[in-house]
Amino acid sequence: MLLAFLSLSLAAKEREYDYVLFDNSLMDGGFYYSSVSYDSLSWVENLQGRLPVCSSEFSSPGNSLKLAYLSGRGGWRADVIFQDARGADNFKSPDLLSMRIKAEAGIDSGALPDVCLVAQDGTRSEAVPLSRYLDCRKEGKWQTASIPLSDFGIRPTSMDVILKVHSVSFSKGGGSDREASLYLDDIEILPAQVPAVRLDAPQLVEAEGGELHIDIRWKGKGEEGVKYYKIYRSFDGKKFVPVASRRPWMDRYADFIGKTGVKAYYKVSAVDYSLKETPCSVVMSASTRAMSDDELMDMVQKANFRYYWEQCEPESGLAREDVPGKTDMIATGASGFGIMAILSGIHRGFITREQGVQRFLKITSFLEKADKYHGVFPHFMDGTTGKTIAWFGKQDNGGDLVETAFLYEGLLSARQFFDGDSKDEKLIRDRIDGLWKNVEWNWYKQTDDSPYLYWHWSPDQAWVIHHRLIGWNETMIVYLLAIMSPMHSVSPSMYYSGWASNDDIAAAYRKAWGRVSDGERYENGNTYYGRKLDVAVSDGGPLFFTHYSFMGFDPHKLTDRYTNYFENNKAIAEVNLRYCMENQGRFEGYGFGCWGMTASDQMEHYSADEPVKDLDNGTIAPTGALASFPYTPEASMAALKNYYRNYGRFLWGEYGFRDAFNLSENWVSSIFMGLNQAPIVVMIENYRSGTVWNLFMSHPDIEKGLEKLNSIK
Question: In sequence order, what are the residues at sequence separation of 6 or more whose Cβ sits closer than 8 angstroms to the Cβ of residue 283?
């Protein structure tokens, strides 16, 4: 019945997550992943149909859900829904539903609700009375309710009936018609047996103040047996209160104070699955302080940089797809972006050059041994083995030309950065040169006379995906690198026959993407919100089109038959900005400091929003505006300050800004994403100093390739 709980690990070390339906909400108000309904003879307290978040009561800090209800003679229902985080899908084997509950004083067993499990298809398990698992004599105290799955009628023989628990559902129980209140916390499906490990106190190693927040970092002794880390804060160094908890895979906490000039003290403990707590760490302190615009950019770059420095897959040194997510799986394109973020970090002094050298020795050694298909890397690899992971399905088991191009934006930049005479820096250059020369870009034409490059090739299914690369979108860098390759190049004419093709195949592709004919022949020429777009599908598309190919490649340096790409990207960003300022959908928050339709995590799944009313649901990804700094510096800085100063309490986290948020729905993503953290670092750096652009463009093959491309304009 609960097949999705069975281990799907991709390697022996792949992390097993607890199946958590609720531990803490990042936002106040109504908890997005909940729903409430009742008839006219009953009632459930709710905020826009969702359970309220309560910050004054919690078992694990810092909040819980409030379930206040009147059963009366009618019926009611309140569901807490599982939040499906990308890649965090390898769960511990299921045995019981566990939750922490605090009941109001004076409650009787008849007033307690029934509880059941609901599958994704709506199928409901048997309901059980919560009164069986709580002692009403302990009202006003936190208790653990542990309900074996067998009590819900879930047996091993029926595990193929329901794929995954969608929600835990509370409903009218006994005959009491009085009002009652419960607080719910740590709602999880767990194994019956949990590690019995003696935990040591964590070691607090860092406390650093930002403008309105303080970062702390600690060291534990492994994840085994740790349920969560518990963070305590004091403003006088004497009276400490618990303010947050972090799961064992996170060794940082960004405490958003909300004021400058505040000194705070911190200590951290570890809590096991029996809720036994270790002694606390030593105390460390730091203070918030007012920051200039340059200091704010430093702060944002450093936090986002840390995603790639601290949360990399340790064997390869490369980027995970997202955090939390797969621990052994690395993402090729995000790794290329992360490489450029690390170069920016060295330039800014976040790490030393020698630290960077050691990381790049690891990265290049891994890449030499990793799976390649005619020199092209797969989309995802196991960082412990270098083997391909077909995460998107069995057809995605070979070379991914687009992800490989993103990787080489980073590698070619690194090749130019490490220009020293030391043995190690020379080795890094030699390894990158060897990898670069062996990429068979021309193989991915599929046929000798093809006008197009193709996205994928499978060793056992060949061109089964059959996805032609046609602009305008994020894949321009593929054609540029293919033309510039020193050993396996394609003709510069493919830029116009493939990427900028005017043929009917390309027109149909673009029309299907944009759902309109604007830009179907590559050139657009229409004006949107007062800005003419020389090249674009529809009215510009998602903003990552102007970021991914141009983190290394300087758009100032590319002018083709149609446009200069810095000016074109600037126009697309301004259309996106003006669309959000006009706010046709009347979404909360949209404006000069809150804009940027792009690809990101969403409330239900990953998708790409565009500045078109029908393709906009009110979700904003900070990377949209912040990676547009070179194009829209004033509006991007306004967005940075707005996101941090006004929404930082829920949007700012351990690795910078969380992936996306939707104020109209009171939702914020729980993840940091490898594809979206780095563009913030790199494009801010390109705006400030041009460092990554200058590195990439200085590569001799890029310089020669530009000459070839310019010769056929």
Answer: 204, 234, 237, 265, 266, 267
